[in-house]
Write a structure and sequence with these properties.
Elements: E1 4-6, E2 13-16, E3 23-25, H1 48-55, H2 63-74, H3 80-85, H4 90-99, H5 121-124, H6 134-144, H7 150-166, H8 172-193, H9 198-214, H10 233-243, H11 253-269, H12 275-285, H13 291-302
Antiparallel strand pairs: 1-2, 2-3
Length: about 300
């Protein structure tokens, strides 16, 4: 059952993820928009963290098939040309698909797969020529502020997704730190494209490092044991089987009781002679009185 509740502090509606069971704010940071007509809710109620973990890393076995499956659940199209433009990466492809006006009305049945020979005119447009939909642009302006180009907003959104998927974001304070880091990354990228400002780039990198250290977001946190969160489900299962194998099952006492005293007894009544009846006879022998042995003991006592 879907659980929804309001946070008493900030009245943000929260949705229980149907996979991990965690309650998370019903924002675009945590959940994808639902487009499937069979689901009557606005958000796809499996969180992005679980969805991204299910899809796994680019190049992993079955990666593309999992992308197809996820798009089918969201009722979003797979467009081969756009998929290649976004580096064949799920976390770059899906934000573009959700925010571009020309893809809004497309569903999974409109998909153009990698082995297709025809691509629509819409998909032949270069990515740089794509403009944001007015509603999406107003939402981005509200979050990031005014004065940025469509390409800047796309870059900021991608950086936010990368940070949110690599580090925990437990509160609004951490979200604001991540937001500042996204702005710094944008400034660094612009300076590098202009091939100047090496000193400024160094200062920005130091500022970014200081922010991450103050927030205890050192890059080492995203490696080692914490990197398990980024592994595909199949790789995780293999790791758990090696590190923590399932213990040997205990004897089922109830099954043993039923086999012996019910099935064995019925088999005995039917005049059968098999493993069950032998097991039944052996169990009863513990409670059976041997009169011959008893009489023999009495004779010894009389002597």
């Amino acid at each position: 059952m879907v659980v929804r509740k309001k946070d008493e502090k900030d009245t943000v509606e929260k949705i229980k993820c149907q996979n991990c069971g965690k309650l998370k704010a019903s924002t675009s940071v945590n959940y994808y928009m639902n487009g499937h007509p069979l689901f009557n809710w606005d958000k796809f109620e499996v969180c992005k963290e679980c969805t991204n973990s299910y899809i796994g890393e680019k190049g992993s076995e079955g990666y593309l098939h999992r992308v197809y499956s996820m798009l089918a659940l969201l009722d979003k199209p797979f467009l081969a040309d756009l998929w290649k433009q976004r580096g064949e990466e799920w976390q770059r492809y899906i934000p573009t698909l959700s925010s571009m006006k020309q893809y809004k009305e497309l569903t999974f049945k409109d998909s153009i797969f990698l082995n297709s020979n025809s691509i629509s005119d819409t998909d032949n447009n270069s990515f740089d020529e794509i403009t944001l939909h007015e509603d999406d642009l107003s939402e981005l302006i509200e979050y990031w502020g005014r004065g940025y180009s469509d390409e800047d907003y796309r870059y900021l959104e991608e950086e936010k997704i990368k940070l949110m998927s690599s580090f925990e974001c437990p509160d609004y304070g951490m979200e604001m730190i991540m937001r500042d880091i996204c702005f710094i990354n944008l400034d660094i990228e612009k300076l590098r494209q202009n091939k100047k400002g090496s000193k400024e780039i160094g200062n920005l990198i130091k500022t970014r490092s200081d922010l991450m250290n103050d927030a205890k977001m050192k890059p080492i946190q995203a490696t080692g044991a914490d990197a398990n969160d980024q592994l595909s489900f199949g790789v995780l299962v293999k790791k758990w089987e090696n590190d923590r194998p399932i213990p040997k099952g205990l004897d089922d006492e109830m099954k043993n009781y039923i086999d012996t005293f019910m099935i064995g007894h019925l088999a005995k009544m039917e005049g059968l002679n098999n493993e069950m009846t032998e097991k039944y006879d052996k169990a009863l022998s513990e409670y059976t009185i041997d009169f011959n042995e008893l009489n023999k003991n009495d004779e010894y006592e009389d002597d």
